[in-house]
Amino acid sequence: MHETRRILLDGSALEVVRQGEELLTADGRRIAVRDAVHLPPVQPSKILCAHLNYRNRLEELQAPCPPAPNYFTKPPSCLLGHGGAVVRPKGCRFLNYEGEVAIVIGRRAHNIRIADAHQYIGGYTLANDYALHDFRDADRGSMLRVKGADTLGLVGPGLVTGWRPAGQILRTYVNGRIVQESSLDGMIWDVAYLVTDLARMMTLLPGDLILSGTPANSRPVNPGDVVVVEVEGLGRLENTIVEGDAPVSGEAGWPPSASEKVLGVALGEKLRE
User: Fold this and answer.
1) Which of 41, 79, 108, 216 has a CA positioned 20 to 30 A from the CA of residue 250?
2) pLDDT tens digit string along 173-184?
């Protein structure tokens, strides 16, 4: 396997190669992994996300299995790198973690076959697809504010090539305690299917991200919590939750809410749409 990362060094974004606990720059400089300021490992033109793609998540929410995947998008402006601070806006209560594996597109893909899909995958990284469920009523199913707010797209730490999902265990930790644990075999639709399905209708470009879904037990976190997503071969993606400096402006748009639908999804009780 081979891993590259993007870091901020001397005010510039640099692609580096991981060698053990060091990061090597193209000009030969070495930086300790623990000292690096990490950026998202890729710069996608779009972020496409599979919704409810684990059997145990469907069971948890008492949701029927659709005949094909459903998707939503996250804007690239939401991206945040390993070690960053995820912001829960002041006045909000339901910021949920969602540990995931993210597919990184490696070459232009349009109208491809499932058998060929892996040829278009450039590698994989980890993601924490945070959801701000306080705005679930406001979004009315679009997921725009729920998923698209600044810092809610945590990805990294690196782009790993030579790795494929094959029953590895995905774990999410909050303050050192395991809160999600599932085999990647628990996906309903595998990565080849997701890439092929999305490429039917749009052109996928190098660097584009496809988030493959989260397993059961997505729950709210609070300012001060440390959240880690881990999969063998892809490393550990870590962040801290912080509270925003000011409440979401009340001058425009819907306010945060805590309806039965919001509580049902945020607390993993039942999907109420």
Assistant:
1) 79
2) 999 999 999 999
- Give the DSSP H or E segment for 89: strand 85-90
Report the pLDDT value the prediction gives residue 273, as an integer from 0 to 100.
Answer: 46
Task: Count Cα atoms within 13 angstroms, Cβ side, for 252.
Answer: 0
Cα angle 97, 71, 6; round to 5: 55
Element (H, E) at 196: helix 191-199
Residue 36 dihedral angles phi and psi, to the nearest 5°: -80, 150
Helix (H, G, I), strand (E, B) or coil at 117: helix
| SS3 state at 187 | strand
Given a contact cutoff of 8 angstroms between Cβ atoms, the answer to whether 82 and 237 are in contact is yes
The answer to whether 158 and 75 are in contact (CB under 8 A) is no
CATH 2.30.30 location in the chain = 1-39
Fold of 1-39: SH3 type barrels. (2.30.30)
Strands 99-105 and 22-24: unpaired
Which of 111, 119, 70 is closest to 203 using CA atoms?
Answer: 111
Fold of 40-266: Fumarylacetoacetate hydrolase; domain 2 (3.90.850)
Please write the tens of the pLDDT for every residue from 43-68: 999 999 999 999 999 999 989 999 99
CA-to-CA separations, 262 to 16, 86, 163, 259, 271, in angstroms, rounded: 41, 20, 37, 5, 9
